[in-house]
Amino acid sequence: MKSNSFDTMLESQVAAIRGFSRFYTRKLGIIEPKLLHSPFTLQEARIIYELAHRENCTATELVRELDLDAGFVSRTLQALQRRQIVTRKPSKADKRVNEVALTAKGRTAAADLDRRSRSEVGALLKQMDGDRRAAVVRAMGTIEQSLEPPAEKPAGFLLRSHRVGDIGWVISRQGRAYAEEYGWDISYEALVAEICAQFLRSFDPAREQCWIAEVDGEPVGSIFLVKAGDGLAKLRLLLVEEKARGLGVGRALVEQCIRSAREMGYTKMTLWTQSILLAARGIYARTGFRRVKEEKHHSFGVDLVGETWELDL
């Protein structure tokens, strides 16, 4: 009798979850032929999103991460490659394996999908008062943590203050990374060089700092905290090398910057980023920053959407 009662309860719970899934996908327009009125299907958008946050990976890794059929992923990647959304190149570690990455056009598409998604969810949340919004967010957090508890990731890195030679490394790696990954021209490297030169010329250790992330003694990331006047701190030049992504380096750098800004007595922190930098924007949002301004501009040889983010300390 107890078994029948359990089975009946389980069936009702399964039905409730399936019903909610249908409701939520319909609410967000996920079951439409094109996701969020974009040129992409849901599965294409999932692949674009994954590549935007992983920088590059193999088709096999996409199959595993997204739990999709290998043949379907292969056909979808071929279609996206024809549309110049993705590119494939031999892996540096194993020339027999091709890595997949977004092109500059693909990163623009990823940023557009992200904007459409934020707009869609924002429109839903605006219909509720503050208490109901908070309840919805808490409920979703409970669902996520219950179905897939967060895995503990080994740190594997350390943060230290900058020393002689580090700033040159920052300039070189920033210039090369953004040229290779986003197609930005050398004017970006010139801007980074100007920022770094100003930092060195007027460095105030009581109010400013640069941190370098290291793995096995090798630099893999950096971030700057600089003063901007009137109790305002500025976060600048966050960078995480491709080989160190997924270790939590970016978040650790940002959290260190925030913690030090508070200790130094700043009351607010600001930063300027671009809409296509999805991984960095995700870190900023998760650490409490809020986007307060966006503006289209043409810089570094490409069309961009600049964003200003702020955090009250």
Summary tags:
313 residues, alpha+beta, three-stranded antiparallel sheet, 10 helices, 50% helix, 23% strand, globular, N-acetyltransferase activity, DNA-binding transcription factor activity, transferase
Fold and architecture overview:
The chain has 313 residues and is of the alpha+beta class. It has helices at 2-27, 42-54, 59-66, 70-82, 104-126, 130-147, 166-182, 186-201, 249-263, 278-286; strands at residues 56-58, 86-90, 98-102, 158-161, 209-215, 218-227, 232-240, 268-274, 290-299, 302-312. It has a seven-stranded mixed β-sheet with strand order 4-5-6-7-8-10-9, sandwiched between helices. It has a three-stranded antiparallel β-sheet with strand order 1-3-2. A hairpin with a 7-residue loop joins strand 2 (86-90) and strand 3. The longest helix is centred in the first third of the chain and has 26 residues, at 2-27. It starts with a helix and ends with a strand. The model has no long low-confidence stretch (mean pLDDT 86). Pfam families: Acetyltransf_1 (PF00583), MarR_2 (PF12802). This is Helix-turn-helix domain-containing GNAT family N-acetyltransferase. InterPro entries: Acyl_CoA_acyltransferase (IPR016181), GNAT_dom (IPR000182), HTH_MarR-typ (IPR000835), NAT_camello-type (IPR050769), WH-like_DNA-bd_sf (IPR036388), WH_DNA-bd_sf (IPR036390). Residues 170-313 form the N-acetyltransferase domain.
